[in-house]
Amino acid sequence: MKKAEITAFLSIVFILTVSFVLGILEVSVIHTTKNLNRLAADRAAFSVFGEYHRKLLEDYHVFAIEGSYGTGEYSDERLIGRMHYYGTAGMEQEITGIQYLTDLNGQAFREQVLQYMEERYGLSLIRDFTGLTSRWEEQAIQGEEMEETEGNILDEVNDLMESAQFPEEDGVADTQENQDTDLEGPETDVVSPDSEGVGDLTEGGPFTCIEEIEKSGILSVVMPKDMELSGLAIELETQPSARSLNTGKGTFPVRQGTDGVEEKLLFNEYVLKNFSCAVPDEGQSVSTGENEGTESRSLAYETEYILEGKSSDKENLESFLMKLFLVRMALNYVYLMGDSAKQAEVTALAVAVTTALLIPEAAEVLKQLILLAWAAGESVVDIRTLLSGNRTALIKSSDTWQLPLSSLLTLGSGTEQIDGSDVPGGITYKDYLRMFLFLKDPDDINMRVLDRIEENIKMEYGMDWFRTDQCITKIEVKNTSEILGGITYTFPVYFGYE
């Protein structure tokens, strides 16, 4: 046998070398385990987000997880359970951030819609509209001003009536018999001093149409004879825009500039392409909800609902058409003020009426009121034209003006049949929807679009449990796993549809 020996120095070197190697191995195991856990968490999140709601994507081009998984009740535990199923069973997980479609007034929803529209159509889709936005704003302002003017017409006419002076008894009849007017059209009758309302001003007077709108609503005079009014309605309090919603938590990146001119126009085109209105495109039909099947929806005039937010198709259409009526009335009044031939017709009528009422000094006042009434009557014909699927001129000319003054005297009485004719190169009903959508608050539009999406998926696919405020678009999870010998590793995982 040979005697072996080792020095203290070599012993220390050997121990250090072994410790270093073992340390490297332990570090390698720890980092490898960390990476595997990260991969497992990423894979689980990716798999969970692969369970997006198929109908929401197919019909409305939006990615989201339906967080209740068909139960109607969302809970973090259910979502974490799905992640455990996909490979994170050994980890403790806590959801620290989550975003729903309805958060921030539908911000996440709007971002996805804009991305889809940009990729699918591009900005060329809205190129023809970008130069019209300032004109739309002008027309809206004119319409608001005309609302006040229109509201004063009846008061001014009644004031005119009260200022009239009549002879006693037989004198009234004598005055009626002896009045002679040069105006072509219906004869003008004198009313009694105690008459009330504009309808009594003349037999079939020029204010009949406005009076009918005030009394029975605009639908009573503008509906084309072959158009059937939808009777569908919803419960507003159950809609995402009205009820209490699940709200997300945490902070996520937000796209900037979602309310710019181009973005608003793109989003509004999405609305017009995916939701029905009172005047469908050629070859399409409006769902009435009466027939069973995937085409049935709870409202037929969905775009009008997105604009007005009322519970029934009738209310939404009436509210929208009243705004449209005021805009058209302002444009038509501007045209009348510049047409000398039509002003001469109105002057003749005003002189005839005020002479019959024994107040010739009021002729100029009545002339202005009749001009407003004529503009209102032309607007009624314009709306009938639009509701019939035809086009009307944006700015009128002598060739495109449709309502003769003589027909104004019967408009709104139910005896006339003036529906208007198509004007080549004019504007359509959908053009006005586009205009008012642009002028509407984007937050209101976002939420009402989500109202319609939720309702439609419920009705068309029988998914009564579906709620847009349980549809998840982004998530952040805090993960804690045990690595080696009691060492724990905590790390975040983020995933979202972007």
TrEMBL record:
Residues 168-187 have a biased composition (Acidic residues). Residues 168-205 are annotated as: Disordered. InterPro entries: DUF5702. This is Uncharacterized protein.
